[in-house]
Specification:
Length: 187
């Protein structure tokens, strides 16, 4: 009898939680306020588009959660790949993004794919993009415009199907004015 009652309680709890998830459907997000519903609506609208998205907000406001939700609701079949541009030195960031071929630089003893290729058919989230060196931003612009990449040390281009989501905790307009973000990348 105790096991039957416990099973019944667990089933009711499961059904309640399932209903909450079905009604909410936003994973890590919590809240049903009008403001949060507006955020969910905006994510839903943006997710259906193929456009690159720029997310801004203060540290700790959930920019990566928004990016993950956009990817999850986008219908893209590939991976969600996140990279923190502020945490990786400029000298390494380019090889992390684009990958490299054997012999491209000292220590490149084997070929390695980059985050762009890893996110093929999916989404690449560039967190703290305003910390990315302008030279790498220029190469990013080419990826955005042409949908092609070249691994470091290679002269062969790859076509990629990728959606770029970028975020910063700075005011984007101010970052452009300060020279931390290329205006053409912003647009």
């Amino acid at each position: 009898v105790t096991h039957a009652l416990e099973r019944c309680r667990l089933k009711q709890e499961y059904l309640f939680l399932r209903e909450q998830l079905d009604n909410h459907g936003w994973g890590e997000f919590i809240g049903q306020s009008t403001v949060m519903r507006d955020v969910y609506d905006l994510i839903s609208q943006v997710a259906l588009s193929k456009a690159s998205v720029f997310i801004s907000g203060e540290t700790g406001t959930g920019k990566e959660l928004v990016a993950r939700a956009i990817h999850r609701h986008s219908g893209r079949s590939g991976l969600f790949v996140a990279i923190n541009c502020a945490a990786i030195p400029t000298s390494i960031l380019e090889s992390e993004l684009f990958g490299y071929v054997r012999g491209a630089f000292t220590g490149a003893d084997k070929e390695r794919i980059g985050k762009f290729e890893l996110a093929h058919k999916g989404t690449l989230f560039l967190d703290e993009i305003t910390e990315m060196h302008p030279d790498i931003q220029a190469k990013l612009l080419r990826v955005l415009q042409e949908s092609t990449i070249e691994r470091l040390g290679s002269n062969r281009s790859f076509n990629i199907d990728i959606r770029i989501l970028a975020a910063t905790n700075r005011n984007p307009r101010q970052a452009v004015d300060d020279g931390c973000l290329r205006e053409d990348v912003f647009y």
